[in-house]
Amino acid sequence: MRVALAQTDCRLGDVEGNLADAERIIKQAAEREADLVVFPELSLTGYALGRLTDNVSDISLWPDDPRLAALSRHGPDVVIGLLEDGRIRRHNSALYLSNGALVHNHRKLYLPNYLIWEERKHASPGQHMRAFDTRHGRFATLVCNDAWQPMLPWLAAQDGAELLIVPANSAAKPTGGSFDPAEYWHDLLTFTARMQQCWVVFVNRVGDEAGVRFWGGSRVLDPWGSVVTAAPDWEESLTVVDIDLRAVRKRRHEIPLLADARMGLLRRELERLITESGGD
């Protein structure tokens, strides 16, 4: 299977322009015989939604918008990020499109709302984490901060995911302190690939938006946690790599870390914690 990492910049609020750029890049990936093209989080809308001016019309999109379906009619499957119009609520969503049809819609589950991040002001969290079948294999999507929640990659792997797709909008040192997002992402992605024994495709954006600079550094890791390809930092790129999904079964057979899940134990302890905390 050949995967293309579309490490792109985008223009805040310019859905039509971003769609045109995405289509151009998908055609380039098709020329390189890619099976799947992955774009960053919110790649059709931009991230700083609170900075949109009053004269900008609603930029949310229906998942069944024909312009989205058209993106996957050039050959490769496509993962694209957008602000989804969910009728009553909006969502930070990543769609998996194939042959002109929507295969899966992942609504970001954990929306940061601290420091410079204000996602809960503009979107509602999703309610489901599901692996899904594609013509290439069984995948799951985790949008940016979702991947920082240890239980979600584990749930995806337990649901049979052989490849985790992680679109992101990760900025360079957003707090101005010692926290280095690139270093954290490196450690996190290595841990996730090793412990869930699956391929991980991480695609981060680049460019400047609302005073924030995005660093790129997209990459693919194998089920042993090794980086098999990486895009450059700070600049747009289309990086193509071949992966073998059979390596997942091989690795999970060699060291069966996921086999003894103890679902009943987890259910009992989660129910206890929910009861004690009064939460959901």
Automatic annotation (TrEMBL):
<dbReference type="GO" id="GO:0033388">
    <property type="term" value="P:putrescine biosynthetic process from arginine"/>
</dbReference>
<keyword id="KW-0378">Hydrolase</keyword>
<dbReference type="GO" id="GO:0050126">
    <property type="term" value="F:N-carbamoylputrescine amidase activity"/>
</dbReference>
<feature type="domain" description="CN hydrolase">
    <location>
        <begin position="1"/>
        <end position="245"/>
    </location>
</feature>
<protein>
    <submittedName>
        <fullName>Amidohydrolase</fullName>
    </submittedName>
</protein>
<dbReference type="InterPro" id="IPR050345">
    <property type="entry name" value="Aliph_Amidase/BUP"/>
</dbReference>
<dbReference type="InterPro" id="IPR003010">
    <property type="entry name" value="C-N_Hydrolase"/>
</dbReference>
<dbReference type="Pfam" id="PF00795">
    <property type="entry name" value="CN_hydrolase"/>
</dbReference>
<dbReference type="InterPro" id="IPR036526">
    <property type="entry name" value="C-N_Hydrolase_sf"/>
</dbReference>
